[in-house]
């Protein structure tokens, strides 16, 4: 379940626009920046694996700062910054949830959709970590099914004698190295999210054995899925079309002729957003709990309902 928690936080709604963004930088070789970004993510994950297995505490980054520097003010600022980032991210995801994909299904006032969305996610978190992780498990599997549809659509399209396989090696730039590096920095953002799992360390039995395996396993799965999606998208659609599209993966599925209904992608994108908000709020609540127990926040914030 930990692997799926991390995978659910890494995979997000942003992946549905990622192919077009990277194609705009490098051309058809979308997989190259993704591969480099995966290597960078694995290096960062190695640091987290070391810290989490040495200090398996709910306070996460705040605890690591305290152990490293022994300065409560600095530790508070680190932890508070993480909590603030989580709250801001959840708010942004609520706005995204109420946006075009939702309005395409149901025309409701966006501000009330945002409020209702956050209330539901908060209530789910309040029920407990077990219920939250169960919901995450279901939503992560749905997210993966959406990306599997894209890969299947690309395979079908190429198997019918269509597509341009050689396009995946094309670099549409005069400075390939610079373009790939710049695109890798963008692609790296698609791998972030695994750091929130550090705040669940206390819930993990045999953390020294399980956490590193789950962390690296989730990142490798995400990397392989991303690269397969990128390769498939490049073979099905021309680079110019990927660059111009607001929903490149939906266009890939539509162009394949596989007959997958477009509204399914709207639902899957909404689930990806909801899962991201759920996991972000889990992180913020666990971090707040851990900071209170470390004396960095009032003790009342360490209470469990």
TrEMBL record:
Record InterPro entries: AA/rel_permease1, APC_superfamily
Cell location: Cell membrane
Record GO terms (molecular function): transmembrane transporter activity
Cellular component, GO annotation: plasma membrane
Superkingdom assignment: Bacteria
Upper lineage: Bacteria, Pseudomonadati, Pseudomonadota, Gammaproteobacteria, Pseudomonadales
Keywords attached to this entry: Cell membrane, Membrane, Transmembrane, Transmembrane helix
One protein family per Pfam: AA_permease_2
Membrane topology according to the record: Multi-pass membrane protein
Protein name: Amino acid transporter
Signal sequence segment: none
Source species: Pseudomonas savastanoi pv. glycinea str. race 4
Membrane-crossing residue ranges in chain numbering: 29-52, 73-99, 105-125, 137-157, 177-194, 215-238, 258-284
